[in-house]
Amino acid sequence: MLWDWGYTWEILPVLAGAAIVTIEATLVGFVIAALLGLAFAILRMSPSAWVRLPVGGLVEFIRSTPLLIQIFFLFFVFPKFGVTLSAFTAGFLALGLHYSTYCSEVYRAGLENIPKGQWEASIALNLSPWVTFRDIIIPQAIPPVVPALGNYLVALFKETPLLSAIAVLELMQTAKILGSENFRYTEPMTLVGIFFLLLSLISAAGIRQVERWLKNRRG
């Protein structure tokens, strides 16, 4: 039998529970990526070379090394330095750290597109750098880069199967366990593909809604 519907309905709740773990890792990882990426972008614009160059080097190093190695490093190497992380924690931290470097480039492009006059006006008004970024620069820089950030959200979501390498019970790991128990891989792997497709489409639709909301707000 190529496809067993009875087995499909039996494993569907198990995979649905694993999908929650995948979604949690995606959302927490993306929040870290979005916030840390913004911090990296701002620090890379610092007039001080002592700040700008080390941060730029760190961003390039993280972006240029494989995500899987970073996951292994956090989970297997950190305990050697006295920092022990659960598999889930190491997973979402690695996802967030890795994608923060990509988000930082997106933010940097948005920040650099702000007209120079905005910065000069802030200096003329004697505004502090914190107030300038919070109230003037960031509200103008973020909306145009939302589509690119949304693309990285979807990309991060599709990277979550890598967490199965450290035994996080997300969708892919759960599907592999179900398949090995019954020697049936067609149903669990197909359902995993459908889950990823549906959640990616939902995410893309949500991103488009955010874009329209931002355009209406600016309009």
UniProtKB/TrEMBL annotation:
<feature type="domain" description="ABC transmembrane type-1">
    <location>
        <begin position="19"/>
        <end position="207"/>
    </location>
</feature>
<protein>
    <submittedName>
        <fullName>Amino acid ABC transporter membrane protein 2, PAAT family</fullName>
    </submittedName>
</protein>
<dbReference type="InterPro" id="IPR000515">
    <property type="entry name" value="MetI-like"/>
</dbReference>
<feature type="transmembrane region" description="Helical">
    <location>
        <begin position="12"/>
        <end position="43"/>
    </location>
</feature>
<dbReference type="InterPro" id="IPR010065">
    <property type="entry name" value="AA_ABC_transptr_permease_3TM"/>
</dbReference>
<dbReference type="InterPro" id="IPR043429">
    <property type="entry name" value="ArtM/GltK/GlnP/TcyL/YhdX-like"/>
</dbReference>
<keyword id="KW-1003">Cell membrane</keyword>
<feature type="transmembrane region" description="Helical">
    <location>
        <begin position="189"/>
        <end position="207"/>
    </location>
</feature>
<dbReference type="GO" id="GO:0006865">
    <property type="term" value="P:amino acid transport"/>
</dbReference>
<keyword id="KW-0813">Transport</keyword>
<dbReference type="InterPro" id="IPR035906">
    <property type="entry name" value="MetI-like_sf"/>
</dbReference>
<keyword id="KW-1133">Transmembrane helix</keyword>
<dbReference type="InterPro" id="IPR014341">
    <property type="entry name" value="Ectoine_EhuD"/>
</dbReference>
<keyword id="KW-0472">Membrane</keyword>
<dbReference type="Pfam" id="PF00528">
    <property type="entry name" value="BPD_transp_1"/>
</dbReference>
<keyword id="KW-0812">Transmembrane</keyword>
<comment type="similarity">
    <text>Belongs to the binding-protein-dependent transport system permease family. HisMQ subfamily.</text>
</comment>
<dbReference type="GO" id="GO:0043190">
    <property type="term" value="C:ATP-binding cassette (ABC) transporter complex"/>
</dbReference>
<keyword id="KW-0029">Amino-acid transport</keyword>
<feature type="transmembrane region" description="Helical">
    <location>
        <begin position="71"/>
        <end position="95"/>
    </location>
</feature>
<dbReference type="GO" id="GO:0022857">
    <property type="term" value="F:transmembrane transporter activity"/>
</dbReference>
